[in-house]
Design a protein that fits this description.
The protein is α/β, with parallel strands linked by helices and 435 residues long. The protein folds into two domains: 363 residues, Alpha-Beta Barrel (TIM Barrel); 54 residues, no CATH class. The protein is built from 16 helices and 14 strands. The chain has an eight-stranded parallel beta barrel with strand order 5-6-7-8-10-12-13-14, surrounded by five helices. Strands 1-2 form a two-stranded parallel ribbon. Helix 11 links the parallel strand 13 and strand 14. Helix 3 runs parallel beside helix 5 and helix 10 runs parallel beside helix 11. The relative contact order is 0.11. It is found in: Cytoplasm. Keywords: Carbohydrate metabolism, Cytoplasm, Isomerase, Magnesium, Metal-binding, Xylose metabolism. This is Xylose isomerase.
């Protein structure tokens, strides 16, 4: 231990009856769920940005958190890495995630920023080898610095576009060197504030060209993991181009990348887009682009992305139900894109936020597995669509029956279909048996 978390013990599983707040009550890494260890199902990751780089500000107030590693020198960056790996060890989380700007100071030139990142990557490599920690994904921060105020790939200035490409290369190289399982792209300022100064067609072409370049470079360096796009509808931009899963899929189809790129879906972003988390997960699975999860929650009374640690087990059960239905994660995982409240000042608060989130995810996973193994929901859903297995229905679905044939079928059989109950209340009651 380097000091900041030195009074906090390593978190162990003690079971639901434990009164020890520094223990897992539900997350038992070795518990087998549907034939797989819980740790291997959930693949937890700690987010470097919220846990170690966020100063506690919000739109109406500045820094509230004080951390010994806050500062813009390499000494601060090394101290931050020490504290981060201490937290990873305390939690027993197998993965972490980072942006380049989270882990290294901005240099006076692009070359110096890259050198700073390379130095930290070497430190990460040593710590990962010593601890067994792994990188779930890396990414580039192309939204904080003022150069990105009008976007990165979609910027009207081609020099900014080039700078974005160079930044992506450096971050892909870093992720590849550390054996990252995925690489994420979140276009925080890829969008617009007003259509009065925006060329939608041009900006879409720029975004497509940049993503094609990223995929080309991924193959050139032999990076095996998928590229993941993280949808979000707005904030900080008025309208962001990666609005939701459906919008991202349409973009991927437009540029022929639907078999190359998947999505990293965040619970809070799904809510901002007017969807449920499980909707976005189910749609991604249906389209074949499900990749990974950013797990958090929003405050339903606030209009912004509050990034709180998750604690709503019924919501999480429905989300993990969709994850398990698609076969679980392959390269993805459950990244805590979540931060403590700006009034939560103590080291213990950061640890306990993760402990609570991990326990809630474990409860949600076990409820989802119980639902799936019971089979009742799938059975009732299959029964609702059973009519489509009939010969006439199959002819309509295959295209053998067009409108004329359908009309003939209705007229000759005297068909007069009557509504059938959707049984929503029964289904909701059934789900509540498990959560």
């Amino acid at each position: 231990m380097t000091g900041y978390f030195s009074d906090i013990p390593k978190i162990q599983y003690e079971g639901p009856e434990s009164d020890n707040e520094f223990a897992f009550r539900h997350y038992n890494p070795d518990e087998v769920v549907m034939g797989k260890r819980m740790e291997d199902h959930l693949r937890f990751a700690v987010a470097y940005w919220h846990s170690f780089a966020w100063p506690g500000g919000d739109p109406f107030g500045g820094q509230t958190l004080e951390r010994p590693w806050f500062g813009e020198t390499m000494e601060h960056a090394r101290a931050k890495a020490d504290a981060a790996f201490d937290l990873f060890e305390i939690l027993g989380a197998p993965f972490f995630c980072f942006h380049d700007l989270d882990v290294r100071p901005e240099g006076e030139s692009f070359a110096k920023s890259c050198a700073n990142l390379d130095a930290i990557v070497d430190i990460f490599g040593e710590k990962m080898e010593a601890t067994g920690m792994k990188l779930l994904w890396g990414t580039a921060n192309m939204f904080t610095h003022r150069r990105w105020m009008s976007g990165a790939a979609t910027n009207p200035d081609p020099d900014v576009f080039a700078y974005a490409g160079a930044t992506l290369k450096s971050c892909l190289d870093a992720t590849h060197k550390l054996g990252g399982a995925n690489y994420v792209m979140w276009g925080g300022r890829e969008g617009y504030e007003t259509l009065l100064n925006t060329d939608l067609t041009r900006e879409a072409e720029q975004a497509g060209r940049m993503l094609l370049s990223v995929v080309d470079y991924k193959h050139k360096i032999g990076f095996d993991g998928p590229i993941l796009i993280e949808p979000k509808p707005q904030e900080p931009s008025k309208h962001q181009y990666d609005y939701d899963v459906a919008t991202v899929y349409g973009f991927l189809k437009r540029f022929g990348l639907e078999n190359e790129v998947k999505v990293n879906i965040e619970q809070g972003h799904a809510i901002l887009a007017g969807h449920s988390f499980e909707h976005e997960l189910a749609l991604a699975a249906s389209l074949g682009i499900f990749g990974s999860i950013d797990m958090n929650r929003n405050d339903y009374q606030s209009g912004w992305d509050t990034d709180q640690f998750p604690n709503n087990v019924p919501e999480m059960a429905l989300a993990f139900y969709e994850v398990l239905k698609v076969g679980g994660y392959t390269t993805g995982g459950t990244n805590f894109d979540a931060k403590i409240r700006r009034q939560s000042l103590d080291p213990e608060d950061l640890v306990l936020g993760h402990v609570g989130g991990m326990d809630a995810c474990a409860r949600g996973l076990k409820a989802a597995a119980a639902m799936l193994e019971d089979g009742g929901l799938e059975s009732m859903r299959d029964a609702r669509y059973a009519g489509w297995e009939g010969p006439e229905a199959q002819k309509m679905l295959s295209g053998e029956y067009g409108l004329e044939e359908m009309a003939h079928y209705v007229e000759t059989t005297g068909l007069d279909p009557q509504p059938k109950s959707g049984r929503q209340e029964r289904l909701e009651n059934w789900v509540n048996k498990f959560v």
